[in-house]
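### Sample
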Amino acid sequence: MFWADETAMKFVKAMYPMILPFFMNYPRNLQRADAIRYMILYEYGGVYADLDLVGLRPLDPILRKYFCGLSQEPYLHPILYSNFYGLACNAFMAYRRHHPFMKILVDSFSSFPVAVETFDSTGPRFVTILYRNYIAEHSHVHKTDNEGVYLAPPEYFMPSSDAGIQKEIKTQCSKKDLTHLQTWACEMFKITVWEVPQTPAQNRGILSNRKNR
């Protein structure tokens, strides 16, 4: 199913009239694109994937096992940019209809200022913060349960660093004030990307970013 701006707006007006003013107040189209995918997935369920993702293997094993599945950014990205380990990614998501975690995403729009960067207000950090809170509050729930959330390893959906930001990562690694965690990440990046770049044949993930191929 493909959603254009017009159909997305009709959907929000019909299904989420209370959210519409906040939705319209986002200063960036990308924020609305993030928000609408959460609302649609909550109402209908299904699979969302960015247009620049390419399928390499069937999704059936994950879709049959988990009621809610999230992709994860390559390990090195959040370490180098934010000095923390593990970043949920909203480029690929698979949910059953009315999953409680997706409801939390939708209900939390107003808790994150619209003026901040998309990454923080509706994007990966937004999802990561709410994911960590959800897991902490549902520690008794297994990831395969109806209310569980499965955060897939990066190699499943983001098996290699984004080629488009490798220059930025090299610049980041050249800084002198890196933490121990960031220094380790730079060493790993040097080994896996600078010295041994991946080829499509080496890419064994389920999905791949087209820019990396």
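The longest strand covers residues 88-95. This sample (Alpha-1,4-N-acetylglucosaminyltransferase) is used throughout the tutorial notebook.
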